[in-house]
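User: Design a sequence. Structure:
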């Protein structure tokens, strides 16, 4: 393997405080707890600890709590936003990542309280300020959801 073909080096992890510095989301809409294995301009892995204490479980569904698929997609988008921030560094100041589209979303099995969701995000393409990503969400190494989506980088 040529050095050009090698994936970029991992820069470490963002704990919850770094995640909150990177993206504007806050309770109750912050959908990731940590981002690890960050490879700038390539990939990252978000971690979401699913807790029964989350508001959406009061109504989705009270007798059989299931994490809404749209929130799994949002956790993918937030992980990708952290990857963008890690990639752009100082050039990201004064900007936000806006979710644009989602395609091919598939939900393979329910995500329930007590699960730990690992969101594997890979940059598929970048054209100017539009980035495309592919993602898989896994619990215990099993794919529970997947999607491809796009985001736009804009000034605040």
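Assistant: Done.
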């Amino acid at each position: 393997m040529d050095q050009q073909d090698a994936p970029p080096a991992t820069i470490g992890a963002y704990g919850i405080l770094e995640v909150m510095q990177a993206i504007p989301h806050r309770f109750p809409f912050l959908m990731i707890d940590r981002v690890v294995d960050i490879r700038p301009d390539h990939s990252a892995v978000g971690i979401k600890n699913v807790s029964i204490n989350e508001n959406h479980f009061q109504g989705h569904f009270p007798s059989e709590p299931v994490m809404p698929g749209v929130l799994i997609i949002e956790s993918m988008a937030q992980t990708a936003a952290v990857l963008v921030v890690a990639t752009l560094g100082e050039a990201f100041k004064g900007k936000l990542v806006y979710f644009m589209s989602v395609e091919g979303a598939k939900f393979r099995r329910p995500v329930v309280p007590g699960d730990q969701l690992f969101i594997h995000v890979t940059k598929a393409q970048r054209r100017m300020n539009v980035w495309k990503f592919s993602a898989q969400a896994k619990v215990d190494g099993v794919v529970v959801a997947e999607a491809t989506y796009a985001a736009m980088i804009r000034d605040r």
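The chain is about 15% helix and 40% strand. The mean pLDDT is 94.
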